[in-house]
Amino acid sequence: MKRFKFNQFHRYSQFLPTDAVKDVGRLLILSGLVGVVAGLGAIAFYYLLDLSKYFFLGTLAGYTPSGPGGEAPIFHSTGAEFHRWLLLVIPGLGGLISGIIVFHFAPEAEGHGTDAAIDSFHHKSGKVRARVPFIKAISSAITIGTGGSGGREGPIAQIGAGFGSILGGWLHLPPWERRILTAAGMAAGIGAIFHAPLAGALFAAEVLYRDMDLEYEVIIPAVIASIVAYSVFSVHHGFGHLFATPNFVFKNPAQLFPYLILAVVVAAGSIFYVKTFYAVQGFFQRMKIPNHFKPAIGGLIVGVMGFFLPEVLATGYGIVQSAFNGEVRLWIPGEVFTAWTAVGILVIVAVGKIFSTAFSIGSGGSGGVFGPAVVIGGAFGGATGIMAQQVFPNMGIQPGAFAMVGMAGFFAAAANTPISTIIMVSEMTGNYHLLVPSMWVCIIAYMLSRKHTIYKNQLASRFDAPIHMGNMMSSVLKKMTVGDVLDDGNPSPVMFVREDMPFKELIEKFSQAETQTFPVISKDGRLLGVVDGRLLRTMVTEMNIDSVVLAADIAEPSFTVSRNESLFFAIQLMVTERYTELLVAEEDDDEKIIAIITRNDIITAYNQEIIQDLELSNKAGD
Questions:
Q1: Using CA atoms, how far apart are residues 430 and 242, in angstroms rounded to an integer?
Q2: How many CB atoms within 10 Å of residue 110?
């Protein structure tokens, strides 16, 4: 079947009045297509996940996990009798099924999908195999639906990124545009399923790097794709918010002190989360058994935890919703705990969720790490809020507000995404009155834990990204001059030759020279050209050593640069003219040669400049 190429769009471009309009139209079409497909993919994944929970947990075990207040289940509880003992085995069964599917059809679909999408953007030119979105959707629905502790962010990020990659491949787009569509797909999926279109777009641009850096080129396509995907998803599921929250407010600046304590708590918790996750993942990677059995073992361990505390199973959003309401409800209807007992339960749920997520996803199961982070942060935040309310009774503290801010702070610290997380939690709850404490907690928590990240494929900054290496190199070379190389290094000596130098003598000079470029000088001192050492090598094999050929006979036109020319100009000239060396002439006399600069000289100078910049950055960081 003949593939459709994006170039076919150009036949209609004559009807567009300007190049700017053409670019906007092209961007709208591509990003919009990604958004439509990602939105439909989010709907399909939501159905699969709810069906899986309904069958495995609801029908078989008789356990229906409580969900967020703004989201109703598609498949309602059957009212089956609760068989608690089945919670011991169902997560293991789900892990086995998921493991077989993933490791047989698409091993890259294991684990939390956002990290795989980041890796695809940085190291695989935005390429995701066509089967991955479908395998990821099925395996994640089974993992989470059987009680595995995971979130919807990872699967939908990889699903959306996969659709963007597939579209880019179908249209034969260049690597950079495929990368953009991959990131836009990630934004679209997250923006849709979490009802957070703006945060989804910012997240896709921010999550690629550990430091405070954004992939700016991603933002506009990501916004378009996220808006479209959110609209498609919400037409089917409603335009509300994920969580229902009371009217939280921030009116007392004195509350910044207990919020500061919360920032320290969630920063410490996020570091523990990251270290635990990768310690468990490393343990399973070292196990000498077939990979598809590993998620089953992780699932069985989670089942034991869920037997005693069902709140650590599946997404676990219900405990956060109850914390928003200023209370703690476990799965037993009507059971409400008060004050210090609630604090202890919330801490136990948070720690339990850390371990259940590590064993569910770190063992090779399929799911996200954002959802669990929301629950963990909400639980830590709720516990801190209740304690603060008891210690500072006259400060007007709302424990539910601390739960909401804790959600944001915990994930901002764990993922190094403070900006997008502030917006995401606000969009998920529909509450923008806590932006000040959210910013306060997110930034402090991020600064305290910035050396740790749940996404191992993040790069430090755009400076380290393969796609930007060319841009970074050109910016460095543009600020350096040829004179910098001559002053700081040891430039190669110039080997001048007379215009009447015989071929035999030329060969002797060539064998003794450090360079391959020989300026040919006339009797009155004028520069006639250069003899290229590469040409001499060829002529030696074709001519008699005693040939009557003189240096002037084989001189080629010369190209010179002055001390004040940038190294970027020099390297461009080398590439264009296919030289590895250039003559350096005086500024006011291009026939007066003072040195030779080589490609290696430029590379050495560039490396030294980079090392100096890194040393300065490290000193500034210290």
A1: 8
A2: 26
Q: How far is Cα 264 from Cα 258, in angstroms, rounded to an integer?
A: 10
Average pLDDT, the chain: 83
Q: Is the pLDDT of residue 201 over 90?
A: yes
In a domain, 613, yes or no: no
Tell me how far apart the alpha carbons of residues 477 and 609 are, in angstroms, rounded to a whole number: 9
Structure confidence by residue, pLDDT tens digits, 562-594: 888 888 888 888 877 777 788 888 877 777 788
In a domain, 94, yes or no: yes
Distance, in Å, from the CA atom of 24 to the CA atom of 217, rounded to the nearest integer, reads 14
Q: What is the DSSP string of 272-314?
A: HHHHHHHHHHHHHHH--S-GGGHHHHHHHHHHHHHHH-GGGSS
Confidence of residue 621 (pLDDT cuts 50, 70, 90): low
pLDDT digits (tens, 9 = 90+) for 217-251: 899 999 999 999 999 999 988 888 888 888 888 88
Mean pLDDT value of segment 186-206: 91
Single out the residue of 168, 115, 162, 114 nearest to residue 135, CA to CA: 162
Residue 616 lies in a domain: no
The arithmetic mean of pLDDT across residues 418-439, rounded, is 90
Q: Are residues 219 and 366 in the same domain?
A: no
191, 200 contact by CB (below 8 A): yes
Q: DSSP label at 71?
A: -
Cα–Cα distance for residue pair 608/179, rounded to 1 Å: 31
Q: What is the chain's alpha carbon radius of gyration, rounded to the nearest angstrom? A: 31
b/e per residue 186-221 (b: at least 16 CB within 10 A): bbbbbbbbbbbbbbbbbbbbbbbbbeebbbebbbbb
- pLDDT at residue 296 greater than cutoff 80: yes
- CA–CA separation, 197 and 203 (whole Å): 10
Amino acid at 51: L
Whether residue 3 is predicted with pLDDT greater than 70 in this model: the reply is no
**Spatial CB neighbours of 122, under 8 Å, sequence gap ≥ 6:** 208, 457, 459, 465, 466, 467
510 and 397 fall within a common domain: no
pTM: 0.77
The residue out of 463, 490, 513 marking a domain boundary is 463
Residue 173 and residue 103 share a domain: yes
In this structure, the answer to whether residues 197 and 302 fall within a common structural domain is no
Domain boundary among 204, 237, 270: 237
Claim to verify: residue 259 and residue 293 sit in the same structural domain: yes
Q: What secondary structure, in 3-state letters, does 185-237 show? A: HHHHHHHHHCCCHHHHHHHHHHCCECCCCCCHHHHHHHHHHHHHHHHHHHHHH
**Number of structural domains in the chain:** 3
Are 183 and 286 members of one domain? no
Q: Is the pLDDT of residue 410 over 80?
A: yes
CA distance linking residue 474 with residue 313, whole number of Å = 51
At 315, which CATH number? Answer: 1.10.3080.10
Sign of CA dihedral 604, 608, 611, 613: negative
Q: Are residues 456 and 474 in the same domain?
A: no
Residue 178, domain extent: 6-237
Question: Which tokens go with 537?
Answer: 């090598």
Residues 442 and 509 in one domain: no
pLDDT band at 438 (very low <50, low <70, confident <90, very high): very high
User: Does a structural domain hold residue 245?
Assistant: no
How much of the chain exceeds pLDDT 70, in percent?
Answer: 86
Task: For residue 578, give the CATH number of its domain.
Answer: 3.10.580.10
